[in-house]
Specification:
With about 100 residues, the chain is of the alpha+beta class. The protein has helices spanning about 35-50, 55-70, 80-85, 90-100; strands at about 5, 15-20, 25-30. The chain has four helices and three strands, in the order βββαααα.
Amino acid sequence: MGGELLPPGEAGPDDVVLAWEGADVVAVRLPQLAESLDHILTALERREGRPLAELDRKAKQGIVRTLEARGAFAVRHGVETVAGALGVSRFTIYNYLNREKGR
């Protein structure tokens, strides 16, 4: 997801500090959720071996299912971001999501 490891002394207020046997060992800086969605889309594109917009409808529906399971649509502008990556409209993304809920 694109997290970054830091020395515990460099941890900011939004970082997660991990401890082992009472001692701080490492801090984890998590990316913004929108950045995580970009990382996920890039990984999916790499997995498919071509731009997501070039996939057929069935494959795009599978991508939407995967992204929904990973919480992509809880991110602000998630639907718009995914629609752009898949080369479809927001309406199409909502149709894919509703089709899954009907099964």
